[in-house]
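Hey team,

Filing this mostly as a record. A colleague (T.K.) asked me to run one chain through the structure pipeline before their review meeting, and I want the input and output archived in the tracker in case anyone asks later how it was produced. No errors, nothing strange. Just documentation.

Input sequence:
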Amino acid sequence: MIPIQATLQGAGLGFRRSMLPELASDWDDRLPEEVGFWEVAPENWIGVGGRLGRQFRAYTERHPFICHGLSLSLGGPAPLDEALLVNIRDFIKTHDIRYYSEHLSYCSDDGHLYDLMPIPFTEEAVHHVAGRIQRSQDILGQRIAIENVSYYAAPGAEMREIDFINAVLAEADCELLLDVNNIYVNSINHRYDAHQFLAALPSERVAYIHVAGHYDEADDLIVDTHGADVIDPVWDLLNAAYRLHGTPHPSGIPTLLERDFNIPPLTELLGEIRTIRDYQHKSQDDHARRIA
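Output structure:
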């Protein structure tokens, strides 16, 4: 499989159905300049036909797309949903999807829980999840990235979050979808240093980055919502991610802006897209100066 940074560059945006009316306007003519790629949840589009299906196909034919799964439940106790993986594999082929990622979490047992639940940070869980990731990669025929997730409790933890993530990455031999907002959220909720956590992640496994907004429930409790603007401490963490992990990515680490509700007009989202691009360009300039 071609590395994601070889096929995608710049800043991306999550593709949402609510955006379709605005995308159908002349705004679409500026997409190649402003949005480098789009990310879509395959579960929201697999099997969709008719007018919506044709609209979606029109975009995947013209623009780079990647997939970010919602319901594979990599850490779940129920058998791995191999039928879903086959559907995702076919979806990727049909729409020429460039990459696939999922959450390092679980969301089902006998049925779907419709939320991302924390996997216990244990050695047993490392082996369980890594085996399911390897099986997923075998079915999809490609390496995938797993996302470090936000969580609000750590049941049965026997190791630190950073050690758990790194152990899964190594045993599964997969890549990392680095979510800087999730690191910030967890650092507040679980009282650790976000920059130390970021520095402890393996640069060679970073495939791409997520950045998003959140909701401050209290001084010591943040909820990961993807429903607000990105705040300055998260932008700072993104800048640090480029500085720490950008070297294997000479063209810059592909970075996606997530916005799932309270979605403003696309012209407003472009402001945050441009901020991402500014940080990327600065990182590339700094890297060029270091090696000159």
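Quick notes for T.K.: The mean pLDDT is 90. The domain at 4-24+34-291 is CATH 3.20.20.150 (TIM Barrel).
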